[in-house]
Write a structure and sequence with these properties.
It contains ten helices and twelve strands. By secondary structure, the chain is of the alpha/beta class. Among the domains are: 87 residues, Winged helix-like DNA-binding domain superfamily/Winged helix DNA-binding domain (Arc Repressor Mutant, subunit A, Orthogonal Bundle), CATH 1.10.10.10; 104 residues, D-Maltodextrin-Binding Protein, domain 2, CATH 3.40.190. It has a five-stranded mixed beta sheet, sandwiched between helices. A three-stranded antiparallel beta sheet has the order 10-7-11. Helix 1 packs across helix 4, helix 2 packs across helix 3 and helix 5 crosses helix 10. It starts with a helix and ends with a helix.
Length: 301
């Protein structure tokens, strides 16, 4: 086993493709495939599962990748310290539901840990895709919520994908509305008071089950309902149409301004917001730093 082979595994995992990784590594695709195959035979594990749809990390491969990243990080520290080598570009990806605190934490990560070169990704995406991204190591960290309604389904998916959920905070139900919405003047809003206002919620695509909804109380019926795909559009519609959405109540004035505010919703529902990662894989240095930034962002909010 060589450091070069470890770098190959990390690059393939980052790219999700042998061909793309080979281009980035400036070697032929057969040479890359053979190097990884030799490593798998030496270790007697399958790192990448190969199908007609492409490649994905196996359960053992996800665990191996965590250790490989740690070894390469330490090797690069030695090279930088004693050989004056140029730091390698940093890699880190996170997939998340549409939370401002996740963006705040990402900003802090880049400011504090970004080097001259880095390739980072922040994906605000659908609930099912968050789980799949972390399962396949497209993202190292995923952020979503679990509550009493969706816990059975989400927990089963996480278990089947060999992922674990780590809680960040617990929140009560709130609505987000424009400061000009009449509901903004209420200390608490009831569900009946929402009836005349457009309900805004995030599209879940192919997996459009109530259990994957980013908003709690997803089984409620609404006279006026609008699906959106991104947070900026949702906030524009909150202002332009006096709409509302249901969320955690955690909002960032730094990123979103002061035109949107949270108002408590009269409901007993509780959300457990947290991050997911592979059960047996050690986190990279940037992943650890991002989790710390998440905790700081929540504390500020």
């Amino acid at each position: 086993m060589t450091l070069q082979q470890l770098r190959y595994v990390i690059e393939v995992a980052n790219r999700g493709s042998m061909n793309e990784a080979a281009k980035r590594l400036f070697i032929s695709q057969p040479s890359l495939s053979n190097a990884i195959k030799d490593l798998e035979e030496e270790l007697r594990i399958t790192i990448f599962e190969r199908t007609n749809k492409g490649i994905s990390l196996s359960k053992a491969g996800a665990e191996f990748l965590g250790y490989a990243r740690q070894v390469i990080e330490q090797a690069e520290l030695l090279e930088n310290r004693y050989l004056g080598a140029k730091p390698a570009p940093q890699h880190f990806s996170v997939s998340t539901q549409h939370y401002a605190f996740a963006v705040n934490a990402f900003v802090q990560l880049v400011r504090e840990h970004g080097q001259d070169e880095y390739e980072l990704a922040l994906r605000e995406t659908k609930t099912h895709e968050i789980i799949q991204d972390v399962k396949s190591q497209r993202s190292e960290i995923g952020i979503l919520y679990i509550n009493e309604f969706n816990a059975k389904v989400i927990t089963r998916l996480l278990r089947d994908a060999n992922l674990k959920f780590t809680s960040l905070f617990t929140a009560k139900a709130h609505i987000f509305v424009s400061v000009n919405n009449p509901l903004a003047q209420h200390p608490v809003v009831t569900i009946d008071q929402l009836d005349e206002y457009p309900y805004l919620h995030f599209e879940q695509g192919e997996y459009n089950s109530f259990h994957f909804s980013e908003e709690i109380l997803s089984t409620l019926s609404h006279k006026k309902s609008i699906k959106v795909n991104d947070r900026a559009t949702l906030f524009n519609l909150l202002i332009g149409l006096n709409g509302y959405t249901i969320s955690t109540g955690v909002l960032s004035a730094d990123l979103n301004g002061n035109e949107i505010i949270p108002v408590p919703l009269a409901s007993e529902e509780t959300l457990h917001v947290g991050w997911i990662s592979h059960q047996n894989a050690a986190l990279s240095k940037l992943a650890v730093a991002y989790v710390e930034a998440l905790q700081q962002a929540i504390a500020v909010e």
